[in-house]
Amino acid sequence: xxxxxxxxxxxxxxxxxxxxxxxxxxxxxxxxxxxxxxxxxxxxxxxxxxxxxxxxxxxxxxxxxxxxxxxxxxxxxxxxxxxxxxxxxxxxxxxxxxxxxxxxxxxxxxxxxxxxxxxxxxxxxxxxxxxxxxxxxxxxxxxxxxxxxxxxxxxxxxxxxxxxxxxxxxxxxxxxxxxxxxxxxxxxxxxxxxxxxxxxxxxxxxxxxxxxxxxxxxxxxxxxxxxxxxxxxxxxxxxxxxxxxxxxxxxxxxxxxxxxxxxxxxxxxxxxxxxxxxxxxxxxxxxxxxxxxxxxxxxxxxxxxxxxxxxxxxxxxxxxxxxxxxxxxxx
Amino acid sequence: xxxxxxxxxxxxxxxxxxxxxxxxxxxxxxxxxxxxxxxxxxxxxxxxxxxxxxxxxxxxxxxxxxxxxxxxxxxxxxxxxxxxxxxxxxxxxxxxxxxxxxxxxxxxxxxxxxxxxxxxxxxxxxxxxxxxxxxxxxxxxxxxxxxxxxxxxxxxxxxxxxxxxxxxxxxxxxxxxxxxxxxxxxxxxxxxxxxxxxxxxxxxxxxxxxxxxxxxxxxxxxxxxxxxxxxxxxxxxxxxxxxxxxxxxxxxxxxxxxxxxxxxxxxxxxxxxxxxxxxxxxxxxxxxxxxxxxxxxxxxxxxxxxxxxxxxxxxxxxxxxxxxxxxxxxxxxxxxxxxxxxxxxxxxxxxxxxxxxxxxxxxxx
Lengths: 331, 365
Known about the structure:
The complex is a heterodimer.
Chain A: E1 4-13, E2 16-26, E3 31-35, H1 42-50, E4 57-62, E5 65-66, H2 72-75, E6 77-80, H3 92-97, H4 109-122, H5 138-150, E7 156-160, H6 168-185, E8 189-193, H7 196-202, E9 205-210, E10 213-218, H8 220-225, H9 230-235, E11 242-245, E12 258-261, E13 266-281, E14 286-292, E15 295-301, E16 312-317, E17 321-323
Parallel strand pairs in A: 3-8, 3-9, 6-7, 7-8
Antiparallel strand pairs in A: 1-2, 1-4, 4-5, 9-10, 11-12, 12-17, 13-14, 13-16, 14-15
Chain B: E1 4-13, E2 16-26, E3 31-35, H1 42-50, E4 57-62, E5 65-66, E6 78-80, H2 92-102, H3 107-121, H4 136-148, E7 155-158, H5 166-183, E8 187-191, H6 194-200, E9 203-208, E10 211-216, H7 218-223, H8 228-233, E11 240-248, E12 254-257, E13 260-263, E14 271-279, E15 284-286, E16 293-301, E17 305-312, E18 315-322, E19 332-337, E20 343-346
Parallel strand pairs in B: 3-8, 3-9, 6-7, 7-8
Antiparallel strand pairs in B: 1-2, 1-4, 4-5, 9-10, 11-14, 12-13, 14-20, 15-19, 16-17, 16-19, 17-18
Helix pairs in contact in B: 2-3, 2-4, 3-4
């Protein structure tokens, strides 16, 4: 596995700037998740690292070597896409073996068999090894295409929303599995998603993208607890962070335009009155939709709260975030 | 608005039984969710309420009138589909007015109604715009408006937010619910998303394989699932199942797992053989003094909380703990469960045993 470095990468498609001067280092053995909404530049970054596209300017290094002009094959990267692409006429076993049968690799048949067994067990597809790829469900096909990347020994795995087509249960299982595989094998992974749960639970580092720019890079905890802007703060956390005029509460520092309050940054039972507009029981927690001085906010309370719409709850900020007029964090 | 009552309704497509004998009541003004995986019969049930399918047997009452064999046009209800279709050659106002114009309503009355509904939906400013250039949200609002102008007895919605991306879906879900709180229109809403059901619904029916597994208010279904299916389907991560061989007498207040006793709500039923202890992730606690030991397999950071995967003598489980709680992978920890929240399931029928805690709320179709 290898460290991957992007240095001042820009890329436009037609008149649209997809990536704007992005620099990022993916440390060897890290699990880097690129997070952002559609159009933020995540997939473009992935395609540039893979060699499917070439940057307009800037340079990409894998293991210290410039990738300038190298094809995807020469870069030795393994890709998994959202849309699984298997060889339909081959069985699951043959699909998994295919990358290993490359004449360049000279893998022995025993070694191929061992790898297939190992990977198919991890991905819970051992019982389907002799099925034709077309006889699988969508979830199984996606597991095979992840498996086909895992049997190889590339310098980096590149994954583009590989779990988004799976059902909730399988997605949760594979989240844990992927993270375990990555941690135990020391693989380097660059992973695209717009699902914040995937980003928070799997990543060693998250890169937050906003319309072609990398706006923050750090551990999930750093980004959650120390966001650089309203945008970065809004990427993580459910319910989403409340952003209100800073003047609503006492104690705003000079230059603060807005105050950012995650549910745990709102103390209930102290401070000033808010009205409960709606109580949402989600099972493990209950969301309170509050109206405070004619501003809406959402916080979380005990699952079995007795609060009802129309009740009054006192609230007070606790170690809040403050943002300036340009939406950047100032305190 | 209206009450809708489903009584012993069954639907067969050829030899395939899509909906088994189902009964439930949607009360006047309720926001009612039909929840289940694909193929469970929820959309078929909704289509029978609408009159788009006719039941093979059973009755459907709208405000006391039996309408089971009546066509959709005779039921006075509005159906909102997943893929909202607008007339592309008409502007927003004309799209909304269309159902009224085709009923022959006088022009002035149509205009008044469209203006009023546009106000409710916050789309007054775009009434004269062509629908072609609208955002997804506005298209959805126009489609809703077209349903609302008719003043139907009820709204039936088939995954109206299914095609939207996560962020926008959450926003529209809140908007729909707020709209309901203003209009109090009886609404039946089909979804496969348990969070959406919990978030928006006054009541939920959970369906699986054409059978109603449970119905009730969201929190009660979450706390006291009637079947293992419901326990797994609602909540994320799902309820944990600790399987054990044993027996429970009537009035029993504890069960033994791997030699360690756990208190449970007093059982009203007896059972023996393959049993399952069901515990929600947030009711698993770490305890140095507990003799029930488990190995930490993985931790997943979620901001305020973390999900800890644990290998117990009775299988793998997940715990939801504060993100400050220390759980190191490969270490062994003691576990306790919040006794008041536990459910025992019978192995063979996957059914929850009745206890002092759940006896009041186990409603099955």
